[in-house]
């Protein structure tokens, strides 16, 4: 059964209903989320049907007078992304049932743009011609722009929105350019024609298409150095929207890169893979390093999105590298690892954003230094956040471990490459991945510890209450998925292989991928790992029990060297926790600090001491600021032309017409 | 146009040539009243040319349009501009942006350029002459706008550009389609009204209608 049109209609009707019901916030909210749940459910069913072999999930609206119309069709590759979008959308919408009530004065706007955003995001992978793709792409960008600027009273939201808008438009322009080159070669806007014409392009044109698409889609995905909008735009939106943006919207960039590089162009030279690998390595290390320095919980998560996109790109880049060296089994393992991490990151990052949203609602601030002790009042939220933190830190038996481990394995198998540069590149990337994993774990020790453990640092944190049931269900569902995806890699990898089939028609896609056969070493089934872990824990518990007798619980205040009056002000802060890293990577952060003492007249008894520290964002300072400055200088030079006199402007007009006429005379001679 | 015989080409040529003379007159006059009168005379001459075409064919819609043009451009708009000038009490162009001799010399240069530009394009001598004439009148209107400061003169310059368009259309295809011409007339009506109001605003804001006071139009 063709469910795609029903799903699209459902979401479109939800958008309209919100606009019609703008008088009543409750009605608008219910309509929007009801439509979102129904529409996403149908979309999920359509994707599942497509992955099960039904090729009839399509929606075609012919254009006027032979112009390109809308054409959407699911193939297994797009169904993978569509299904991912709808899964996360389901969780976010359930969460929204209680969370969105905090935005009731803007319920209609939030609801309408939310449904539109979901619709556009699901249609981007489903698009079957360039026109539909770019239309859905722009709709996705614009609706998310309005969601980012929902709090338009705040200057920070407006600035974030502006940055997001400008960067996204630049990215879309690059994608347009890339598609135009393909269109000229194919003579048609249909993706089927692109697939035929792409591999036949001359090498230079191919590389141009690839580079334009990599920059355009990479911007949406948030790869360094095009990531600067991401840490500002994602936190500014309502949390369930942040979860969608960070969880799945940036994945459409990954979809685009794969679609262009493999689907349209049919792979390329080794340097393509090397470039993607390098971008991935730089993104992951820089993303996690900047995340460590953040004290804004949501922005910390946003920087981690940059990091995880980097990990995904490392997997995909390794795959492209292996493809160009004619190593199909290895390439397949690397692509599957990249896609696996795409799915995993969507799940745990949306879980973390939802958790951050609940915390934000309970405490009323995004500043981690004002949180603390929340585990006592919000135990369920804390547990879910902990599962997400462990997953993103790649701890077994959760899903993050599985995909990062597979990525790691495929990078290490780059040691068998013939080219020395390839060997060096993959091994360096593997080292970067290892560094990233360690730093990410440190960062989430900080994020979880400072937010949930110890004593509350503010009145609001002391009075926080547990999240409502809908929010907990959504988070619990995602946390359960983290575990399931982690202990069942076999079915997941089968799904990834099914998804890769349309992109890699010539590859040996096995029904049951056998990792040991392609030289991926140390294969242990994660369910066995989980069992071993549980067994070890039980053994340890038994041993302690036998040795020390039944557990005795003694509650006492923390020991403070005999000094009385331990206050939350004396706790380990987020700034303090990340200080060693700040010192180690001082060459990158270029930190500056300011210490200001009040009342200096009594040197031994100072009054208040103010301490603040700041880091420098190298890419913003070294790359963006100089180019903006150069542009403004150029504009100043040209500004002399614009003197403000009407007569002068008319004179320009007259001179232009006259010169054109003289040119015409010259041509005619 | 092929197939046009007899007295018509000569009459149209004569009338449109007089229209060119009146465009030069508008460039040379110092008093605003005279500039508006030059425009009125030009409009009437063009209306008469169109009337000749209409009667020669004969085609009732061109005749009606010709009469409309004479009435509207020859009398209606000038009357409105006179009224505006009376209200803002401005009579002379005291200090033009480009001096009068320079204006005239520039006008002659533009005439030469447009004739030279049209010659290789048009093979039919009558239509070619007409097109060159129309182009010249358009450029002269633009040139008038460049060289003068008073808002009224600039409005007249714009109207002369429109007349140039009329000449070009008349002599290359013997009238435009009715709907286009009506649309143009309506455009002029709205445009002149808006510009008239704008002149009042400029006058009340700056106590002058010199457009060189409007220097804020910049980045």
Walkthrough of the structure:
The complex is a heterodimer of chains A (669) and B (219). Chain A is mainly alpha-helical. Chain A has a domain at 618-668. Chain A contains 26 helices and 4 strands. Chain A has a two-stranded antiparallel ribbon with strand order 1-2. In chain A, strands 3-4 form a two-stranded antiparallel ribbon. The longest helix of chain A has 36 residues, at 328-363. The model of chain A has no long low-confidence stretch (mean pLDDT 89). Chain B has one domain (7-205). Chain B has helices at residues 7-28, 32-56, 60-88, 100-118, 125-147, 151-173, 178-206. In chain B, helix 1 packs antiparallel against helix 2 (32-56), helix 3 (60-88) packs parallel to helix 7 (178-206) and helix 4 (100-118) packs antiparallel against helix 5. The radius of gyration of chain B is 18 Å and the shape is globular. Chain A binds chain B through residues 635, 639, 642-647, 649-651, 653-654, 657-658, 661-662, 664-665, 668-669, and chain B through 97, 110, 113-114, 116-117, 120-121, 135, 139, 142-143, 145-149, 154, 211-212, 214-219.
Task: Give a quick set of tags describing it.
heterodimer; A: 669 residues; mainly alpha; two-stranded antiparallel sheet; 26 helices; 70% helix; globular; B: 219 residues; 7 helices
Compose a concise summary of this entry.
The complex is a heterodimer of chains A (669) and B (219). By secondary structure, chain A is an all-alpha fold.
The figure for the number of domains of chain B is 1
Tally of DSSP helical segments of chain A: 26
Count of β-strands of chain B = 0
Query: Uncertain segments of chain A of ≥5 residues (pLDDT<50)?
Result: none
Number of strands of chain A: 4
**Could you state the oligomeric state of the chains shown?**
heterodimer
Topology:
The complex is a heterodimer of chains A (669) and B (219).
Chain A: H1 4-20, H2 25-51, E1 58-61, E2 70-73, H3 76-99, H4 107-126, H5 130-148, H6 155-186, H7 191-197, H8 203-221, H9 230-236, H10 239-264, H11 270-292, H12 297-324, H13 328-363, H14 374-377, H15 379-392, H16 399-412, H17 420-452, H18 459-462, H19 469-487, H20 489-500, H21 526-548, H22 574-577, H23 579-584, H24 586-589, E3 592-597, E4 609-614, H25 618-639, H26 646-668
Antiparallel strand pairs in A: 1-2, 3-4
Chain B: H1 7-28, H2 32-56, H3 60-88, H4 100-118, H5 125-147, H6 151-173, H7 178-206
Helix pairs in contact in B: 1-2, 1-5, 2-3, 2-6, 3-7, 4-5, 5-6, 6-7
């Amino acid at each position: 059964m063709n469910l795609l049109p029903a799903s699209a209609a459902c979401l479109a009707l939800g958008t309209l209903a919100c606009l019609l019901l703008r008088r009543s916030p409750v009605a608008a909210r219910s309509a929007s989320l009801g439509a979102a749940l129904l529409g996403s459910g149908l979309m999920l069913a359509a994707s599942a049907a497509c992955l099960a072999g039904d090729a009839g999930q399509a929606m075609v609206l012919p254009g006027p007078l032979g112009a390109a119309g809308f054409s959407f069709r699911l193939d297994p590759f797009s169904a993978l992304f569509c299904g991912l979008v709808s899964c996360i959308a389901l969780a976010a919408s359930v969460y929204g049932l209680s969370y969105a009530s905090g935005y009731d004065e803007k319920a209609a706007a939030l609801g309408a743009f939310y449904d539109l955003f979901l619709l556009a995001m699901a249609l981007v992978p489903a698009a079957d011609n360039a026109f539909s793709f770019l239309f859905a792409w722009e709709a996705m960008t614009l609706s998310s722009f309005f969601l980012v600027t929902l709090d338009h009273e705040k200057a920070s939201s407006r600035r974030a929105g502006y940055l997001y808008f400008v960067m996204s438009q630049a990215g879309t322009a690059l994608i347009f350019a890339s598609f135009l080159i393909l269109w000229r070669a194919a003579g048609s806007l249909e993706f089927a024609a692109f697939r035929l014409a792409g591999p036949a392009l001359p090498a230079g044109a191919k590389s141009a298409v690839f580079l334009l698409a990599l920059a355009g889609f990479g911007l949406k995905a948030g790869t360094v150095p095009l990531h600067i909008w991401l840490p500002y735009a994602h936190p500014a939106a309502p949390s369930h929207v942040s979860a969608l943006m960070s969880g799945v919207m940036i994945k459409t960039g990954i979809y685009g890169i794969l679609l262009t590089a493999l689907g349209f162009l049919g792979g390329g030279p080794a340097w393509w893979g090397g470039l993607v690998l390098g971008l991935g390595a730089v993104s992951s290390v820089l993303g996690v390093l900047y995340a460590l320095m953040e004290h804004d919980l949501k922005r910390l998560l946003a920087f981690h999105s940059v990091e995880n996109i980097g990990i995904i790109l490392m997997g995909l880049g390794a795959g492209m590298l292996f493809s160009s060296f004619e190593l199909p089994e290895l390439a397949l393992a690397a692509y599957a690892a990249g896609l696996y991490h795409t799915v995993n990151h969507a799940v745990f990052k949306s879980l973390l954003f939802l958790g951050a949203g609940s915390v934000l609602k309970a405490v009323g601030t995004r500043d981690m230094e004002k949180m603390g002790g929340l585990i006592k009042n919000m135990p369920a939220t804390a547990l879910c956040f902990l599962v997400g933190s462990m997953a993103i830190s790649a701890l077994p038996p959760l899903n993050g471990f599985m995909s990062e481990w597979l990525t790691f394995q495929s990078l290490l198998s780059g040691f068998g490459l013939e080219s020395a540069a390839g060997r060096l590149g993959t091994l360096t990337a593997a080292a970067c991945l290892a560094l990233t994993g360690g730093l990410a774990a440190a960062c989430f020790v900080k994020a979880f510890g400072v937010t949930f453990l110890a004593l509350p640092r503010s009145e609001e944190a002391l009075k926080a209450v547990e999240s409502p049931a809908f929010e907990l269900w959504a988070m619990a569902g995602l946390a359960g998925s983290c575990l399931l995806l982690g202990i069942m890699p076999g079915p997941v990898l089968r799904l990834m292989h099914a998804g890769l089939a349309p992109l890699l028609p010539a590859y040996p896609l096995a029904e049951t991928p056998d990792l040991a056969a392609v030289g991926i070493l140390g294969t242990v089934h994660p369910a066995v790992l989980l069992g071993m872990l549980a067994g070890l824990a039980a053994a340890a518990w038994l041993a302690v029990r036998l040795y020390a007798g039944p557990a005795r619980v003694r509650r006492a205040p923390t020991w403070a060297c005999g000094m009385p009056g331990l206050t939350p002000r004396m706790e380990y802060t987020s700034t303090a926790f990340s200080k060693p890293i700040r010192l180690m990577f001082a060459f990158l952060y270029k930190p500056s600090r300011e210490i200001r003492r009040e009342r200096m007249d009594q040197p031994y008894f100072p009054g208040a001491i103010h301490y603040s520290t700041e880091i420098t964002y190298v890419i913003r300072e070294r790359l963006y600021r100089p180019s903006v400055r150069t542009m403004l200088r150029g504009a100043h030079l040209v500004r002399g032309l614009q003197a403000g006199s009407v007569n002068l402007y008319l004179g320009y007009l007259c001179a232009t017409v006259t010169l054109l006429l003289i040119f015409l005379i010259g041509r005619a001679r | 146009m092929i197939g046009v015989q007899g007295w018509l080409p000569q009459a149209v040529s004569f009338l449109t040539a007089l229209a060119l003379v009146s465009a030069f007159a508008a460039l040379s006059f110092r008093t605003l009243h005279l500039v508006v009168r030059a425009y009125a005379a030009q409009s009437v001459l063009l209306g008469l040319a169109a009337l000749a075409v209409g009667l020669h064919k004969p085609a009732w819609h061109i005749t009606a349009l010709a009469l409309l043009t004479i009435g509207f451009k020859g009398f209606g708009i000038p009357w409105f501009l006179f009224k505006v000038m009376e209200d803002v009490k401005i009579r002379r162009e005291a200090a033009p942006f480009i001096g009068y001799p320079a204006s005239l010399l520039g006008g002659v240069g533009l005439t030469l350029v447009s004739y030279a530009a049209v010659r290789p394009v048009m093979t039919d001598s009558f239509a070619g002459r007409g097109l060159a004439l129309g182009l010249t009148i358009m450029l002269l209107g633009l040139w008038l706008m460049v060289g003068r400061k008073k808002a009224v003169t600039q409005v007249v310059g714009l109207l002369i550009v429109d007349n140039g368009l009329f000449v070009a259309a008349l002599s290359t295809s013997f009238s435009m389609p009715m709907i286009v011409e009506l649309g143009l007339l309506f455009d002029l009506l709205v445009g002149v009204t808006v510009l008239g109001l704008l002149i009042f605003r400029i006058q009340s804001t700056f106590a002058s209608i010199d457009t060189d006071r409007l220097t804020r139009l910049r980045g």
